[in-house]
UniProtKB/TrEMBL annotation:
This is tRNA-dihydrouridine(20/20a) synthase. It holds the Pfam family Dus. Residues 12-322 form the DUS-like FMN-binding domain. PROSITE patterns: UPF0034 (PS01136). It comes from Candidatus Contendobacter odensis Run_B_J11. One of its GO terms (molecular function) is flavin adenine dinucleotide binding. Its EC number is 1.3.1.91. It is an enzyme of class 1 (oxidoreductase). The active site is at C97 (proton donor). Its cofactor is FMN. The lineage of its organism: Bacteria, Pseudomonadati, Pseudomonadota, Gammaproteobacteria, Candidatus Competibacteraceae. It comes from the Bacteria. The gene is dusA.
Amino acid sequence: MEPGKLDRLISVAPMLDWTDRHCRMFLRLLTRHTLLYTEMVTTGAVLHGHRERLLNYDSAEHPLALQLGGSHPADLARCARIAADLDYDEVNLNVGCPSDRVQSGRFGACLMAEPDLVADCVAAMRAAVDIPITVKTRIGIDDRDSYIELVDFVGRVAAGGCGIFIVHARKAWLSGLSPKENREIPPLRYDVVYQLKRDFPQLTIILNGGLSDLEQTAVQLPQVDGVMIGRAAYENPYLLAEMDRRFFGSVQQPPSRHAIIQAFLPYVENQLQQGTPLNSITRHILGLFQGIPGARAWRRFLSEHTHRRGAGVEVLEAALRQVPILSTRTES
């Protein structure tokens, strides 16, 4: 696959502690075409940690991207090679996370202050693999948030071989705000991302930040090459059920919420047989019935029963019985 050829009209953001393999398998039952991302994995963890646990996935998760955290070009190149050998569809470099822990490792949003280093990292990965190498970034950091500085950053990193940028349309404060506050307090500047696309028409520019439904998504697409949805897709995952029909040309009726859980049961059973605790899986599905009668009973039943020793798929089946079956049209 040539760099940049991956269909990326819609994607679900990499989210630490959330987009693990259980979450991704669940989301894949809602949408076949939306690009999914792993949680961020550091280069040190890939090279020296439990690689199988960190990087293994089910082939049904494709299209799937690995997000890396790191700033050493040689290490990133080695990790990209590992990702390619494992058939990941893309490797993404995190240049957007503002947490103190990430900064202490010299990666994430603080790298916006070192565009030449980011360019070197991209170039090293591009030299190592043929799959797309992408960068997820912010529109600025601290007081370095002028449009001129953003253009300089994107231009230098693009010169290193990056043709695809996912841009969170907020600046990041590297101190003084928590990661949660950095997702909420700096104002969204979609206009900056639109201008970036106009000034770099040859690049693929993906907009991220604040998108919560399909209508907002549709509004953005004429301005940019794609959108990345974050927490809304986790907290209200059924919004993804219409993605394939709305944006990817599918003619199939979206599955009902009950049907999605029934389809998920074989995977859950398989994971339980491998020793995975049930609540490690079901914590990702609590929002499935968001806005539907019975949603609170669903969440409460799962929260009260899935942590118990020996809990199996019968708990999920019992939880489903707490929610009335509605037509797909009503559910949507």
